[in-house]
Every structure is written in structure tokens, then in C-alpha cells.
Amino acid sequence: MKVKKAVIPAAGLGTRVLPASKAVPKEMLPIVDKPAIQYIVEEAAAAGIEDILIITGRGKGAIEDHFDRSPELEAKLLSSGKEEMQRQMAAISHLANLTFLRQQETKGLGHAILCARQFAGDEPFAVLYGDDVVLGPVSATGELCAAYEEYGLGVVGIQPVQLSEIGRYCTLAVKELADGRFAVSDMIEKPKPEQVLSPYAVLGRCLLTPEIFPILENTPPGAGGELQLTDAMRTLARTKGMIGVQYSSKRYDMGNKLGILQATVEVAAAHPEVGPQFLAYLKEFLQNQP
After folding, report:
1. Are 127 and 110 in contact (CB under 8 A)?
2. Per residue in 143-202, pLDDT tens?
3. Among 138, 152, 229, which Cα is nearest to 190's?
4. Per-residue pLDDT tens digits for 83-109
């Protein structure tokens, strides 16, 4: 079955990037000239996703506004002779069929996914974490969809993490299959050093089947007292198995100040409009540092 649906959980408070996220949703923080969440929606669309549910919360109305049409702005652009810019603005609302749902209480990523049950129905769906922008020539979501179509199992997007850092993420029991694909038989959220299964962790992307919903309903609160999606996926991995895909693009943690800066610098360096000037400035800046 082709994967045509995706869920983007974007209800988090963004406490790691305060005070910037106090009034502006962290998903709307810009990477050069586009908000982070637009890159995520574009990645899903590039994978052939047609229907996207963005799960928001209080204070996140700017996300909906961004993906809506703005007739006044578009008219102003046209009257100023900026036809290409008007075209770009109008195209934002046509990236996919976008639906918005408010998560009334932030009870964890697992709870957010439960909110998507009616949207998903009986179809598989990709999950693109709202904190994670993944950039590269190939859609990471597309790589997960290809693995699902081949194996018919749930898929997690994985990357190796330094063992000194893996306690902040999760750890996976993996067996390499081929071409950056792995069989996943177990996972532990925020492991203690003696619990580490491998240096591989789920980072930013997964693809789930509807069988995750009854598992989530019967999963007790985990780390932080929240319903952890990883705990439910662990049950799935242990019973049916999952596939891990080491996606080829680069992940930027947009819930982290350093991640935002890294994404901004690297996107700016390759930007067709400002790239050469920005690189020249950056070289001069670095040369003048003590």
C-alpha cells in the first residue's frame, strides 16, 4: 500500500528555545527565509504524501495562518510586479491537503499520535516530528515509505548517536539487513548506561500502521510521566518487528539553539540568493576572530 498520509506533532511548548518561543511557535522560527515547519511539509510532499495532519496547541495559530492563502499580501505583490514571489506564496497552501487539530493537553508524543486516530483510519501514516528538520537531496520520509512498501512493517528513521549522548534519546536493538536498513527488535527510551542496546536511536521520523493505536491505549505513562511513542513502538518491535532506515539526509534539532544556528548557517551557505555573499561574510568574520 502506498503511504499517502502524514502526521506532524507540533504542540510542544518549545522551552529549550525560550524566550524566542514565548510568543512565536518554535515550528515557525525561520531557517533563512522559510519557517522550520514548511521544510517539514515540503519533505512529506516530496515523498508523495497527499494528506497531512498538523497537531497544534494553544498559541500555535501562526502555523495555520502560514499555510493559508493571503489575498491581501498576494495582491500587493502582484501590484508591485513581484509575480514570482506571489506564485511562491500561493504555492505554500497547495503543498498538500492540510488539516489542523489542537491537542488540548500536552501529554506526550504518544498522546499526540492517539489524537490522529480518526485521521489515519485504517491506513499507514508517516510521522514527522515537529522539532526535526531533515534536509538533503532525498526525502527522508520517502526513504521510510519505500521501506514500508518493501517489508510491510512499521519503520523508524534512525541515526547513530554518540554513546555519551544516547541517554537523551532512545536505543535500538538492530540487525543490519542491507543498504542502510535494519531489523529492529527492541528499543528503550532514555536508557541508563547499562541498558544501551546499540548506538542507533530513532531521530525525527517514523512510519506507523493503525495497529499502533490499541497499543498506545494500553501503554502506561513513561519518561516524564508522559505517554511515550517509543514505549508503544517497543511493543510493536518486540511482537511484530520493525524496520530501521538510516536516512541519508541531515537532521537539525529545531528545539535546540545550536541546531537552529547550524540549520541557518548551512542553508544560508547554499541559498541561491544570498549564499555567495553570506559565505564571504562568514569567512571574513572567522578571520577576524581571536
Report:
1. no
2. 999 999 999 999 999 999 998 889 888 999 999 998 899 999 999 988 999 999 999 999
3. 229
4. 999 999 999 999 999 999 998 877 889
What are 260-269's contacts with CB under 8 Å, separation 24+?
A: 260/17, 260/29, 260/31, 263/31, 263/36, 263/133, 263/135, 264/30, 264/31, 264/32, 266/135, 267/31, 267/32, 267/135, 268/32
- Bridge partners of 181, per DSSP, are 178, 245
Q: Hey, CA dihedral for 139, 178, 161, 212, is it positive or negative?
A: positive
Overall pTM > 0.90: yes
Reading the block at residue 115, the C-alpha cell is 489524537
User: How far is it, in rounded angstroms, from Cα 213 to Cα 117?
Assistant: 7
